[in-house]
Write a structure and sequence with these properties.
This is HTH domain-containing protein. By secondary structure, the chain is of the alpha+beta class. The chain is 51% helix and 14% strand. The strands form two sheets. The protein has a four-stranded antiparallel β-sheet, covered by helices on one side.
């Protein structure tokens, strides 16, 4: 029999199920949520009308036969769900800051970048690459984790010690959290400085309205200036 959820609540559960199980059939949704076939179709039709789910035809795994109708979420739905999760995370962090203070919040921020540090150290291994290579490794690690990162070299034609690199991040997987809690940007910058073993400087951030997050790395600092007679 149908579960005891209001229509909107049930529809959200259907959407969440399509997100986590998709491509998923209407029959599978009905069994999971204990809904009648008619109820499942009603919710899926409504979600499809809203542009939140779409039908994907899946061929049988064995032999011939008609493709089955499966449902997946659209890009619009992913954005909507991400916004909902962001609101929950923002409320939780605000409560944490209220109860535990700024240091507790900074501890959470540091842990959120643990995968960056782990992948960077794994890529470096036992080697001792110079600052330029470490900056390239960091950029690749960030890009692999969804930060849409690229590396820009500046100061070409200038004295080698004045040359620098800029690590640019076009996307923030943390969504809007750094906008509300700048501690996340602070801890990320501190991590970059620690991994690169040099002082770095943030030139812009997505959280403060920039088109990208840009971190200035003085890659020429490790070079020795030529001696003058």
């Amino acid at each position: 029999m149908p579960g005891p959820f209001p229509a909107e609540g049930t529809r959200e559960r259907v959407l969440q199920l399509v997100l986590t199980r998709g491509p998923v059939s209407a029959a599978e949704i009905g069994r999971e949520l204990e809904l009648t076939a008619a109820a499942v179709r009603r919710h899926l039709d409504a979600l499809e009308t809203e542009g939140l789910v779409e039908v994907k035809l899946v061929k049988p795994s064995r032999g011939a036969g008609r493709p089955s109708r499966r449902y997946v979420v659209t890009e619009r739905a992913q954005t909507r769900l991400a916004d909902a999760h962001l609101a929950v995370a923002t409320d939780a962090l605000a409560r944490l800051a209220e109860l535990g203070g700024e240091e507790e919040l900074r501890a959470v921020a540091r842990r959120s970048f643990a995968d960056v540090e782990e992948r960077f150290l794994a890529a470096v291994g036992d080697r001792d690459p110079d600052l330029g290579e470490r900056t390239e490794i960091l950029t690749r690690v960030l890009d692999g984790l969804g930060y849409a990162s690229s590396l820009r070299h500046v100061g070409e034609g200038m004295a080698p010690t004045l040359r620098a690199a800029q690590v640019c991040q076009g996307h923030c997987p943390l969504q809007g959290l750094p906008t509300r809690f700048p501690e996340f940007c602070d801890e990320e910058t501190a991590l970059f400085a620690r991994l690169l073993d040099v002082d770095v400087r943030r030139l812009s951030t997505l959280a403060t309205g920039g088109h990208v997050c840009t971190t200035h790395v003085p890659t020429g600092r490790h070079l020795t200036a030529p001696a003058h007679d």
